Please model this.
Amino acid sequence: MLHRFSFNTTEQRSRLMKRIKGKATKPERELARALWAKGVRYRKNYSKLPGKPDIAITKSKVAIFIDGEFWHGYRWEEKKQRIKANREYWIQKIERNIRRDQENTKILEENGWVVIRIWEQDIRKRLEECIEKVLSSL
Model:
C-alpha cells in the first residue's frame, strides 16, 4: 500500500537526506575490501537475489546485507519514540523496511542461502569480528 505524504522539511535536512547513498557506502566498501584480501570472491549488489544483497558469495550461497541503523531499524522500539518530525511517515517507512528485510531473509534461507546481516556500526567498530563471522559461514 503506497501512501503519499506531504510535509515541510528544512533545506538543511533536505540536503542531508539527498547525500545518503544506497550502495557502495563506506562500511560496504571496507568489508568488501577486507574479504577480497582474504581471498573471498563475491558479487556486489547482486540483483538476481531477493533484497539485492550488498555482497553475495555465490559459490558458498552466502548473502550479506550491511544495514544502516536508521533505515533498517536498529533498536527500533527505543528509537521510534524519539522521532519528532513526520512521525507517521518515518515510522511507516522504517517498519516496512524491517518487514521487507525479514521477508527477503526468509526467502533466501528457504532457498539454501546463509543470510548474514551486519549493522554498519559493527563494521566501523569491529571489522575483524565481522570478517570472521563471514569466513566461518563459508
